[in-house]
Design goal:
Layout (H helix, E strand, L loop, with lengths): L2 H19 L5 H24 L9 E9 L4 E7 L6 H15 L8 H20 L3 H10 L1 H11 L4 H29 L6 H5 L5 H18 L8 H8 L2 H26 L1 H6 L1 H20 L4 H20 L4 H32 L10 H4 L1 H15 L5 H16 L1 H26 L6 H4 L6 H19 L2 H19 L6
Antiparallel strand pairs: 1-2
Helix pairs in contact: 1-2, 1-4, 2-3, 2-4, 3-4, 3-11, 3-15, 3-21, 4-5, 4-6, 4-11, 5-7, 6-7, 7-9, 7-10, 9-11, 10-14, 11-14, 11-15, 13-14, 13-19, 14-15, 14-18, 14-19, 15-17, 15-18, 15-21, 15-22, 17-19, 17-21, 18-19, 18-21
Length: 492
């Protein structure tokens, strides 16, 4: 087995063992097995980075064997600079989520931990699949553990939220499947992405494929106007579910654009770039304003996720190396920052059992250590220089200004809104005198919670201070992608 197969199947195997063996009276053992599984899965992803050849745009760590002979579906995996960092990020967030749920989840612990480990393996599968059908199988399979996580451990309206999440994403994916089958027939019976990249397609066919992909990926990202499921799901999902959903799951859609939409239908991508830029700017500006009026902390951070992901799609469709690299960096940074934001809200929720901003006030007086972490993460969410949140946004804004000054200006103004709603939430929850008796009784974070916060704080600061580690690996792959997109695929 190659490294990528191990990275996919080790967490799935651990998850399956937990589902099969664990009972609630063995919760302690289950937690340790889950933690070992998550840490082992993270360690497997390290050689991917250390053994990665930076100056090559070719796929590395490739595994390729026949899976379904009749339809020529292959088990074909590989990573390049675009997907490389997303795999360790997934494994890292899983470790953090397992630690964060240590004391919080007391019922069906084995199922909870098992679902997250299986989900982690499936998402790594999405990021490393080089066969259209294999990608689709992993892409759809991620829905099942997430659906269960929301539907079993969620809040009062969890069933509604789980259904909404499932139906929205399934609806989009149906069109994706049709597009994959069309490409299969056009390419003479191949699901290989490299074959599809070289396939000449008419303008009409490209437009159809582009919008079919858009339906699937825009719901996942979520782009405006199909973002309405996200706030509902976030509010109901348990803390770990929200963290994984915001940190990794939203990236599946953005990654789909880079791997499918742009290289397979480049002419359509150029033709409809204006539409994509407009939708991204609406997400960045309008949804930022919607975030300002939220009373629920989770809802506010959910809308902020939509706004931050708007930067990603904006970066991709201005077709410059700064924009695309900035979009990918923003995906990774948002992974750290949004996970940190949701886990911070989770710490408060575990104590007070309320997500309403009005239920808090003056938390800094009773939980000073925690408030310091929350301040750092809030600053990263605003995009303060020196934190992870700044690097990607700055690159995208720089690329957008080069593309068109006014688009760059609109994107940069969104930073103001971002700072406004984040700081406003921070002020009302953490600062000032103790506003009610719940807050008076709070105790500061324990060693376990401190560990979770510290891991995320290190990641956020390291990426903000030394982004070179993240940008170097992607440069060659991004340049190659842009060359690919620049060549028309219209039949001569």
């Amino acid at each position: 087995m190659g490294l990528l197969s191990l990275a996919i199947w080790v967490p799935i195997l651990f998850g399956a063992v937990l589902l099969a063996l664990g009972r609630d009276d063995q919760a302690g053992v289950v937690r340790w097995i889950a933690l070992i599984g998550a840490v082992v899965s993270l360690l497997i992803t390290v050689p991917l980075y250390t053994g990665f050849v930076v100056d090559s745009a070719a796929m590395q760590f490739v595994e390729n064997m026949l899976w379904i002979e009749r339809f020529n579906v292959r088990y074909h995996l590989g990573v390049d600079g675009i997907s490389l960092w997303l795999i360790p990020l997934t494994a890292f967030i899983t470790v953090v989520v397992v630690i964060s749920a240590w004391e919080v989840i007391t019922e069906r612990v084995n199922q909870y931990m098992g679902a997250f480990l299986i989900l982690s393996g499936l998402m790594i599968g999405v990021f490393s699949a080089l066969d259209g059908m294999l990608f689709y199988v992993f892409f759809e399979a991620t829905l099942i553990p997430m659906y269960l996580i929301i539907g079993i451990w969620g809040g009062p309206n969890k069933i509604y939220a789980a259904f909404k999440f499932f139906l929205y994403t399934l609806m989009g994916s149906l069109l994706l499947l049709i597009a994959l089958i069309y490409l299969y027939t056009q390419s003479g019976g191949s699901f290989d992405l490299a074959v599809w990249y070289a396939l000449p397609l008419s303008g009409k066919a490209q437009a159809f494929i582009f919008f079919a992909f858009l339906a699937a990926f825009a719901v996942k990202v979520p782009m405006w106007p199909v973002h309405t499921w996200l706030p509902d799901v976030h509010v109901e999902a348990p803390t770990g579910g929200s963290a994984v959903l915001a940190a990794i799951m939203l990236k599946l859609g953005a990654y789909g654009f880079l791997r499918f939409s742009l290289p397979i239908a480049p002419d359509a991508a150029h033709e409809y770039a204006g539409v994509m830029i407009t939708l991204s700017l609406i997400a960045v500006v309008y949804v930022g304003l919607v975030a300002m009026v939220q009373q629920d902390m989770k809802k506010l951070v959910a809308y902020s996720s939509v706004a931050h992901m708007g930067f990603v799609t904006l970066g991709f469709f201005i077709f410059s190396d700064l924009g695309v690299s900035g979009g990918i960096v923003q995906m990774i940074a948002h992974g750290f920052v949004s996970a940190a934001m949701f886990l911070s809200i989770g710490v408060l929720y575990d104590r007070v059992h309320s997500r309403e901003i009005a239920s808090y006030g003056g938390v800094v007086n009773t939980m000073p250590k925690f408030a310091a972490f929350a301040l750092l993460f809030s600053m990263a969410n605003c995009g303060l220089p020196g934190t992870a949140g700044f690097v990607g946004e700055w690159m995208v804004i720089l690329g957008a200004v080069k593309y068109n000054f006014w688009i760059g200006f609109a994107a940069a103004s969104a930073l103001i809104f971002g700072a406004a709603y984040t700081l406003w939430m921070f002020k009302r929850v953490y600062l000032g005198p103790v506003a009610n008796h719940h807050v008076k009784d709070l105790v500061d974070i324990n060693a376990r919670e401190f560990l979770v916060m510290a891991l995320l704080a290190i990641a956020v600061l390291y990426m903000g201070i030394y982004p070179k580690l993240f940008t170097d690996v992607m440069d060659t792959s991004v340049t190659q992608l842009l060359k690919q997109i620049a060549i028309s695929k219209l039949p001569v």
